[in-house]
Write a structure and sequence with these properties.
19 helices; two-stranded antiparallel sheet; mainly alpha; homodimer; 1% strand; 2 strands
């Protein structure tokens, strides 16, 4: 009731200050000075009121987007002029953003500490423990990368700008406090100073997004240099590749070790920033949200099941991918024939793994059609974002695939891997479609509650008619009355009153459940768990390959002939980072699916 | 009750086929053949059931996205190889898509005709009459463009491919049937064969999007050729510009008239396709949606008000922009000094108009803060899409602006328009932010109902506590009991039952409304209407300028020096179409705001 009274007060304060003040002063004279006084009073009252949520969202979103675009334009200028003068500008800009975010996070944590007696509401579905654990691991690798950067700066400090030393220090501090923030505050549903906090959180989202962009750009530059070196080594071109090291000599003995290790740690740093960005975005969406306390609790997954085929095949895929990676990296620089063989090997491996993944996903979808568990349609920003990110990040590699198909279709040359390239591209499109469907359907499916299948009778029809009218405007009908307290669900406030009525009506109804239905679902769940773990490991394999240098789209030459190097490298630089993010996000989503089944 | 019974049946069919069938066969022997029969039966039952909405959405979305990407990859190949061989491929692909869409639309209309006795539900907020009227005008211009294309084909048919004649014919048929579809079916909320229709509608969305992309690419190519011709004429470069006409002679006397007219009609065709695409997307979102029939009605705007300053200033802006356009087009090709003067003139005009628009928008926002009308938070896919499109399409010109800022900051040369370029860029960012806030807040605000401001009393606190618990999880509390039948609102089904209870409780409550509050709101509404009409006309002006050739970003040289021609032209080709769409979409949204106030 306390919540309602405060809502009343809010309502009254929000909607009727002018009427209250105007009724009290309606008897005063209508002179212009009185009107001015009233206007000033109304203005002061209005500005002190809560800023509308929608406007607050739009305002903060615009701030964030513009921040991102400032950074992107600086990076584009850097890309044109090369790493001479502008790298310092970009790093200085990023350092400033990180310091602002640090300041905001510290203020937030201090404010929370002071109001420790009033614990904040928390969204149970945002940022599960294992996601935060995984991110902490990535953050540790990121800290090691910062340490190497500092070591590299110490070696070259005679001839490089000071910002190259300041940046990794600030980045390390930023990473440590961000990890602390992730563990203790990421689930908070902010209800005080909403408009201000929206700016703080969106600033954090886009700072991480810019750090991700910077990492991606550095990676792309490095990959392009590698590609050029290979072409020069194979004798195709005769230009000098820009050296990546500074002009002075290193004063320590570990510079080359630092430089080469940085390259291997970079992918983890990149994934860390984009994931944190997504989690902070969910926090931003949660600001001002009203949760249903009874149902906003996570539920652990059901007991152990027979996991054999899935993990075994998954480990096989993982081991094969590491082998393919090593062989590819070695052979692609040897000679033209070795390069062609390496590319063919990659495509054959890809065809096998993608066909298996597509088949596994299709079996999972078929099980869902047969078993037909009900859909969970309650509002869940984290899940909605998951689905949108999966679809959005698939766009990159779908574009690559269709470009490959067009290139193979109109090719003038006929290398040996032409048709395997085509098959790989088409299978990649299919595999992503099937996997997206499987993951999203898994996230939206829920288990049938024990009493959820009544017999066909008129009485039950009437009872369920109440529920039907309560149904949110999605597919299927959600039976709130049978919710157990450990079910992760947030329902609109409106259904609470009706739930009590419904509970009273259905107490004495006994609902039969067939025995046969209980055996096969557990076997089907075993199959689904195996599928989930298999796909989980295959996605890790398909992340490792491009993240550590296996990028045949650069090396096979077909697409470059059809689109030209400028267009094709632009498409690759756009699509490959999205593809890497897709794989890592699928890994996270499939683990969630595995725990949920 | 009929609806509830059918929902019950759906529920029972959906959730419990396996339990129903398993309970009926639980007494049978548990041999493997019986299990197989049960599995087949369950599978058949499952496949006959309704496909889950979420999965249907994901499946159709993936189909649409891949369709778009196939088209984009063909266009990228065309961009590299030039308009020699691949233009026919692209046109053939688009023709095939249009024929498929035509076929689907005809089938849909025939099916609707057969079920004329059962009129479909309609979303009152989708595609208002004036939007459809505007689109019909754009479609007419598009048909004229098709006629000119056919005329041009007839003149050059000796040496051009037949597809260049087939394409405009199919496009004309497609346009006519699409306009018919827009007038009679775009508001339909599809409830039968949902999964199939999702594919049909999404196919239509992405076909129009691809036609838009094709138009944009053609336009960009034309603008680039113009730019090159100017540089050659001014003596900067010495290359030959590719001729845009075919190699043979024209057999009619009107070819050049057709070619030049095509260029002026192209912008309308482009805007037509992107708008239709957005309307069809709203239709796709509406598939399977449950509307509240009582409140799904549009409301006309309030009576006439004093409109003087807004229209006058708006017409002044429009007249000035046309003058600026003509002077710019003439002078930019004359000499280097004339070009510099033309660009400076454009920036000065831009600064004045953007400053005025920002001030007007800010006044509007201030009025909303003072007047504090309640927010309308009911679900409305059309409005949500409007807001997202406004923010999304702003990204293009915000990127251009920040690139200009970076370019001016790091410029090596110092032309006279350097600082006006900087001021223009910053004002453009500000103007778009303010305008977005104003438009979105206007779309989400609603008028206060006559009895909406109660006095502060405990009784009212109790009454509103019921309402408060019904509040959707957004800012403010929506008082459903005071809805009049002509208010455009869709509320969740859940609040219907409570509304009746609420109505009974509040019949005898008399709620005071101050006199003073009624006078100033109508004056404020007048001011808002003037602001809306002024912004409406300014946005038309700012659409006309780049649509018909006034693009100083190509001509001022500053950004090209900072980013290089490849990067800068890519950014322009991405950002300018988005900017044009933003202006046209703002025009539509501001007209909606004007009618709503």
């Amino acid at each position: 009731m306390v919540e309602h009274s405060s809502l009343d007060a809010m309502f009254l304060n929000k909607y009727c200050p002018s009427s209250a003040s105007s009724s009290s002063s309606s008897s005063a004279s209508s002179s212009s000075s009185d009107r001015e006084k009233r206007l000033l009073h109304a203005l002061r009252g209005s500005l002190a009121k809560k800023y509308p949520q929608k406007s607050g969202e739009v305002l903060s979103a615009q701030y964030g987007i513009n921040l991102l675009l400032v950074g992107v334009s600086l990076m584009l200028a850097l890309a044109y002029q090369g790493p001479n003068a502008s790298e310092e500008t970009v790093l200085a800009f990023l350092t400033a953003l990180m310091l602002v975010q640090l300041f905001w996070m510290v203020c937030y944590m201090v404010r929370r500490e002071r109001r420790r007696s009033v614990p904040p509401e928390r969204d149970a579905n945002a940022a599960t423990s294992w996601i935060r654990g995984g991110l902490t691991m990535l953050a540790l690798l990121s800290l090691i990368m910062d340490a190497f950067r500092i070591g590299s700066f110490v070696g070259y400090q005679a001839c490089v700008s000071a910002i190259l030393g300041v940046y990794p220090v600030v980045h390390a501090l930023h990473t440590i406090s961000q990890v602390h923030f992730l563990w203790f505050h990421i689930k908070d549903v902010i209800k005080r100073y909403e408009t201000f906090e929206r700016f703080g959180v969106i600033h954090a989202v886009f700072t991480n997004l810019l750090l991700w962009s910077n990492g991606v750009m550095t990676e792309a530059e490095h990959a392009l240099n590698d590609h050029k070196k290979r072409l020069v080594a194979l004798g195709y071109f005769n230009f000098t590749v820009d050296p990546e090291e500074p002009s002075c000599n290193c004063t320590t003995s570990a510079c080359s070790m630092f430089s080469s290790s940085l390259y291997y740690l970079c992918p983890f740093n990149i994934e860390y920033h984009i994931f944190v960005s997504a989690l902070l975005f969910v926090m931003w969406k949660n600001i001002g949200r009203k949760l249903d306390h009874q149902t906003n609790q996570k539920r652990g997954s059901s007991g152990g099941s027979c996991l054999l085929l899935g993990p075994v095949l998954g480990l096989l895929a993982l081991a094969s991918s590491i082998t393919v990676l090593i062989i590819y990296i070695i052979h692609v620089e040897e000679s033209a024939e070795a390069r062609e063989a390496a590319v063919s090997m990659f495509y054959c491996f890809g065809i096998v793994i993608l066909a298996s993944m597509s088949a596994a996903g299709a079996v999972g979808l078929l099980i869902y059609r047969v078993e037909d568990w009900p859909m969970d349609t309650t509002p869940n920003p984290a899940r909605t974002l998951d689905a949108k990110l999966l679809l959005g990040s698939s766009v990159g590699s779908w574009l690559l695939c269709w470009c490959s198909v067009v290139a193979v279709g109109g090719a003038q040359s006929y290398p040996s891997y032409r048709w395997s390239n085509l098959a790989y591209a088409l299978l990649l499109v299919l595999e992503k479609c099937v996997q997206n469907l499987f993951v999203i359907e898994s996230l939206y499916r829920r288990r049938r509650e024990p009493g959820e299948c009544p017999t066909h009778s008129a009485t039950h029809g009437e009872i369920f008619s109440v529920t039907a009218s309560m149904a949110p405007p999605y597919d299927g009908i959600v039976n709130h009355a049978f919710e157990s307290s450990d079910r992760p669900r947030e329902v609109p406030e409106s259904s609470k009153a009706d739930k009590t009525t419904f509970d009273k009506k259905t107490k004495d109804v006994s609902l039969p459940v067939g025995h046969g239905a209980q055996d096969s679902p557990s076997r089907k769940r075993q199959i689904l768990k195996n599928i989930a773990i298999f796909l989980f490991m295959c996605n890790i394999s398909l992340w490792i390959l491009p993240a550590f240098g296996c990028r045949p789209q650069f090396d096979n030459g077909l697409e470059e002939a059809s689109f030209g190097f400028p267009i094709w490298s632009t498409v690759l630089n756009f699509a490959l980072p999205m593809s890497l993010f897709y794989r890592m996000h699928s890994v996270a989503a499939l683990f969630e699916v595995f725990r949920k089944i």
